[in-house]
Amino acid sequence: MRLAKKVLLIGWDAADWKIISPMLDAGLLPTLNKFVEQGVMGNMATLDPPLSPILWTSIATGKTADEHGILGFVEPDTVNQTVRPVSSRSRKVKALWNIFSQKGLKSNVVGWWPSNPAEPINGAMVSNFYQKVKAKYGEPWPMPDGSIHPKELEHLSEWRVHPGELSLAHILPFVPDALKVDQEKDKHLSSVAKILAECSSVHGAATWLMQNTEWDFMAVYYDAIDHFCHGFMKFHPPQRKNIPDNLYALYKDVVQGAYRFHDMMLERLLQLAGDDTTVMIISDHGFHSDHLRPNRIPKEPAGPAFEHAPFGIFTMKGPHIKKDERIYGATLLDIAPTVLTLFGLPVGRDMQGKVLNQSFDKKVETELIDSWESVTEGNAGMLPGEEREDPWAAKAAMDQLIELGYVEKPGEDKEKAMQKITDESQFYLSRVLMYRKKYLDAIIILEKIVEENPDRLRYGLALNECYMAANKIAESRLLIDKLRSSETAELARLDLLEASLFIAEFKPRKAMELLEKAEKRSAHLPYYFNELGRVYQRLGKWEKSQATYNRALDIDVNNASAHLGIARALLRTKKYAEAAEESIAAIGLMYAMPQAHYCLGEALYHLKHYEDAVTAFGMVTSLAPGSRKAHQWLAKIYREQLHDSEKAKYHQQFIMENIKGTVTVVSGLPRTGTSMVMQMLQQGGMEILTDNIRNSDNNNPKGYLEFEKVKATLRDNSWVNEATDKAVKVVAPLLPFLPDNYSYKIIFMQRDMDEVLRSQQVMLGHNRSVKQDAYPIALAEAFTKQLEKANAWIARTPGAEVLKLNYKDVIANPLEAAETITAFLDEDLEIEKMVSAVDEKLYRNKAE
Amino acid sequence: MEEEKDLTPQIFLSNEKFEIPEEGMLGLLALGDVGLKMWRQKRESIKASIQSSGNTVTDKSVDQKTTDTGLTTTD
């Protein structure tokens, strides 16, 4: 079903509702105000890294950069051994206009980044080099090669505006006191004129094409808001401490002026498009305009991207689009599937976003095909093979990037510069992989560039994030210690990372100590409070955690993780209605957050909104298909509340067939305190898998808590299905014989080998010290080998997580041990009762 | 292209005659190609009338001594 006759996609780079909303209220953007009232609007989540060429290509293709191939502002030019601006040749997959060409639809594309050389599509393309100004005003100003497709439209060059053509009348709306500026010393007016001229050039070409060509799809990209913001956001009200009064007075209106100019241009675009055209206005990311503006821009490639905010804008109006409604959870990846659906075309399964169905006034079934890449029928109008880049055009664009601060000035040594840029693009690729949660792939890239560039802290920080996400805690510890010794170390960031590491090492108290120490350095960062909130939750301090997450929201109300943290705290304190509200707030900001949908589902269940709870848990299973708990909830609600036995059975069956459970395993060598930990778990309220066949004795007066079938694991490990969601004791040598298709949380007990051997001898009735006899070297070696094998199995088993505890430490500090275990298991256990299970008197065979 | 649509910019639909200023205006840039065309035509016509009256043309764009902005400095 085709919903749209024509689609106009307008890109406003860096547009942000935080600036727009008050301007709408003040009546400063009348066209946009009317637009929003006639259609839907919402936040649009950006991707990582938030760099425009990467993001606009994701918008046009529906794919992330690891798939589409655009990896930053520049790319190495291997022919010329230099660096060149990223070109359309680097894009590996079809954009919307290629798909439309194949289907016989006509597209006009203007200024899209990156689109030079222009592709031979069915329609017209004006590349992002078209408007670039290189020549002085009055001198010949040829268009770079590849600026226009088809050639017969090269007369579009006449709609280019040179900054020199502009007059004071154009500048005054941005800088009312422009005449007071001493342009010999202050170059800001040049910058305004340049941005305005380039923007007007794009607009000139777009408006001409709209009037003089037939088109089904039109995409116009304006970079002016982004450029005005990078140049002038520092002067935007409220005045910042480091901004002199005279500069503030001169330039405080520039950013608002930029938006007002776009509103004026929008009026013309809408007039030309007509009411029967579906129009979408989007931005790739937002721009910090308040107290979140960074105090300084890091001196690194793409450093200005630190000014970007995580949410851009999305608004759409037209036939079959709802009116005056808000939509939630849009991401950049949703644009391509949504536009295809508007035209009644199928969405590729290899596209990573979703159709924004909530925008339509009728139910629309999404048609799917495997991939548009394999569709060969029809000419896609893509570029033929490899062509040589026009060095003049490339240089002009590069100069602009350097001027904007996106790219470092290349050094004298070309090879070095090229290597630098290659490493940087690999870094961006790793961040894309991290965004896609492909941490192991990202680690391979990052380990290489970290080794080659040990001084670039940001590479190390990214690598550490991957280690943490991939549960490579030992690697993370080594890296953090190495980064700590680096001279360039940024202490605030490292403190936060190490706190996360302590949490991962199940040392919440140490994490808290570090965070408390780091407060001075980091208390301006929402991330700081999120980490602290997480620590409080690990310690079961729900109210403190809620207050802490609220402090993160005081800094940034759009922090989805903080809303989620609060929702969790409210759930645990049984404030279900508020928990639901906070979950919805988190989802509204970041739709693809299964944990938030899960919290919402749980809150709705307790509020007895069973149908809605089913929807929420259903979303969890769609976003995270492996979520056993969500399926369990669905089975329970269908069975007990909705009395739909078929659906309950389906989810139960799904759990049985697809997802094996999680088993808590207490392991180690015999006599390392495994029974003690089992007792702690039992006292704490955890269900234990035991048949009580082995009774307590003098060696273990509180009981062994064993399960006989475990002893036969070598020949039959089918007992594991009885251990799901329970704790069971398994001696270390048997660990490698557990089935791989379960998740294991292993509490691995360690103890001094002398003590282990002595305790075992005592247990066997040999009441002699190990030291009194010849040391049983062979036995010690055999045990060591068994431990090595067990550890190797844990390391290679994807579903195995391990917490290593030392027997002596548990005896010495049972409270910390209980907290650590609780944090590791992520269970609500009764810590005081766990502590009571530890009896120091039973620590009898101490090493000498 | 749809012939039946009137694509005249709103600003020119008013009953009052709209005089395009020689120095241009932001609103004309916002109109895109049409606005640019009108502004440039206006400049050309002024230039032509000055030439026909025998005076020297002082097109600010070629006369100015300062920056690429097209603005003269305050000195």
Structure, explained:
The complex is a heterodimer of chains A (848) and B (75). Chain A is of the alpha/beta class and 848 residues long. In chain A, the strands form five sheets. In chain A, strands 1, 2, 5, 6, 7, 8, 9, 12, 13 and 14 form a ten-stranded mixed beta sheet that branches. In chain A, strands 18-17-19-20 form a four-stranded parallel beta sheet, sandwiched between helices. In chain A, helix 7 (188-212) packs antiparallel against helix 8 (224-232), helix 13 (414-435) runs antiparallel to helix 14 and helix 16 packs antiparallel against helix 17. The relative contact order of chain A is 0.08. With 75 residues, chain B is an all-alpha fold. Chain B is built from three helices and no strands. The longest helix of chain B is centred in the middle third of the chain and has 20 residues, at 33-52. Mean pLDDT of chain B is 72; it is low at 59-70. Classes of the chains: A alpha/beta (848), B mainly alpha (75). The A-B interface holds A 133, 136-138, 159, 161-171, 173, 178-184, 189-190, 192-194, 196, 200, 203-208, 211-214, 261, 264-265, 267-268, 271-272, 274 and B 1-2, 5, 7, 9-10, 21, 23-27, 29-34, 36, 60-62, 64, 66-71, 73-75.
Distance linking N and C termini of chain B: 50 Å
Helix content of chain B: 25-40%
Radius of gyration of chain A: 31 Å
Uncertain spans of chain B: 59-70
- Roughly what is the average pLDDT of chain A, rounded to an integer? 88
* E-strand count of chain B: 0
Helix segment tally of chain A: 33
Structural class by helix and strand composition of chain A: alpha/beta
Q: What Rg of chain B, in angstroms, do the CA atoms define? A: 16 Å
Quick one: overall form of chain B? elongated
Shape of chain A: elongated
Helix-strand string of chain B: HHH
Q: Which two chains have the most extensive interface, and how many residues on each?
A: A-B, 49 and 32 residues
* Main β sheet profile of chain A: 10 strands, mixed
Helix content of chain A: 40-55%
Quick one: how many beta strands of chain A? 20
* Quaternary status: heterodimer
